[in-house]
Each structure stands twice: as structure tokens, then as C-alpha cells.
Amino acid sequence: MGKCANCGTTLDPSWKFCIACGEPVAAAEETAAEGGTAAQPREPIPSAIRPDEPDEPMPRKRMDAAVIFGVAMALGGGVLIILVAIAVFSPRV
């Protein structure tokens, strides 16, 4: 495991970018291998921009009366269609 030349974060060999500052790992290694100096260190991305987990769980949204009414009407309409289909297509004796 290496360290980011920009911010010093420990890096996994499979990573292409530093997870703290976003610096390309290959570019930092090439600059160091050439004997040059890396670019000026950038500030790590604050956690407010990329939060790991929300502080509080999302509140549950309350279903309002219009949604409940719409679902009830859709179910009622489906039942009505089935009853009409049975009445129309049932054999007459």
C-alpha cells in the first residue's frame, strides 16, 4: 500500500484515485518517479459534500387521503371489470 503524494492518505494498490482528495494515483506515482515535485496539496473533500451515512433516518411520508382514495378506486374498478366480464362471457342456460 502506498500513500497519496498529494495528501498522504494510505492507498490501496487497486485504486486509481485517492479517496480523500481525488488526486489520480497514477499521475502522482509518475511525478514522483520522474523526480519532480507533486502539485500543491489540495484540501480533502469535506464530509459535508460526500456524507458516508445520513445523520438521521429519513422520515416516513404520510399517505394522504387522495392517494388512499385513488388506490381504492383502482381496486374497485378492477373488481367491477372482472364482474362485468363474468356476466358477459358466462354461458347462459
What can you tell me about this protein's structure?
There is one protein chain. This protein has 93 residues and is mostly helical. It has one domain. Helices cover 37% and strands 4% of the residues. It is built from 2 helices and 2 strands, in the order E-E-H-H. It has a two-stranded antiparallel sheet with strand order 1-2. A hairpin with a 6-residue loop joins strand 1 and strand 2. The chain is elongated, with a radius of gyration of 31 Å. The termini are far apart. 8% of the residues are buried.
What portion of the residues fall into strands of 2 or more residues? Answer: under 5%
- Unreliable stretches (pLDDT < 50, length at least 5) are none
Measured between the Cα atoms of the first and last residue, the distance is 84 Å
What composes the largest sheet?
A: 2 strands, antiparallel
Taken together, the total number of domains comes to 1
Query: Would you count the extended β strands for me?
Result: 2
Mean pLDDT: 77
- Categorize the overall geometry: elongated
Strands side by side in the biggest sheet: 1-2
Residue share in helix: 25-40%
**Spatial extent as radius of gyration:** 31 Å
Element pattern in H and E? EEHH
User: Helix/strand/pairing class, anyone?
Assistant: mainly alpha
Outline of this structure?
With 93 residues, the chain is mainly α. Helix content is 37%, strand content 4%. The chain has helices at 25-33, 65-89; strands at 2-3, 10-11.
